[in-house]
Structure prediction request, 295 residues.
Amino acid sequence: MREETKNRLTAAWHIRGGRAITTPAPFGVMGIVNLTPDSFYDGDSHARVRDRVEHALRLHAEGADILDLGAESSRPGAVELKPAEELSRLLPVLFALKREAKGAIISVDTYHADTAAAALELGISVINDISACVFDPGLQDVLAQYKPGYVLMHSGGRPGNMQHDPYYGDVRREVMTFFERTLTRLVRAGLPEDRIVLDPGIGFGKTLAHNMELLAHPEDWFSLGRPVLMALSMKSVFGGLLGLSTARRDVATQVATALLWGRGVFWHRVHEVAEIRRSLMLSVALHTGVTYKSP
Prediction:
């Protein structure tokens, strides 16, 4: 493995309280816990609060390094929620996990300042924001106050309109410029740089060609000195590229994740944790000769 790739894989991500996340293997897995009835992948399968909690506990047991709770769908065309409704979905599950998954690192997927503040008051460690603090500018103040881990994602618009004829003159250059400028803005506002990971936002305001151009060049962002998180699980890119229905994208997700780890992407946000960990362990073994056991 190239030295540059090794360096990117070992860049530390610090979360609330200033501690660095440590993982038992040289990769990180963020397990998706959808609390929405209209998620593109598993919105109908975890309808009751207890079912959602059990699903999160299973992902934790399978080795998710972070549990990412999302109460508002961000699929293309999704309707926006008010923070009060978002919290009504989120809080029962969050309270249960705080009791039953002690020590688990919990992330909340939100762009609402009120939701983020309420979750951070309950002790969660990471905010995963699709908007870069643009949809609700008050979120930037919340980040500066609590200094959690933060996922900085690029999006070409809001979920309701982001896939309406997205256009870039040079998608690689424009995403890179976005990261440079937004990192500077957040750090100046008071969020330490070591709290931030970068997510290129595959599928968010991008055509298949845009997505593939970004996926082919993850090294673009390594010069920024922050780890990269890839949220590729089950996405429409596999439908456009391979003609796969949503239910048949699991193997493609596993292969792409393993390949991207070999290119230096440390963090992976996924629906199926056990399968992805196996794929990543295989990639590590083939690249380095080092083997790791499942949890």
Observations:
- DSSP finds ten helices and eight strands in the chain.
- Residues 144 and 191 are 5 Å apart (CA to CA).
- The domain at 3-288 is CATH 3.20.20.20 (TIM Barrel).
- Strands lie at 28-34, 66-70, 106-109, 126-129, 149-153, 196-199, 229-230, 267-270.
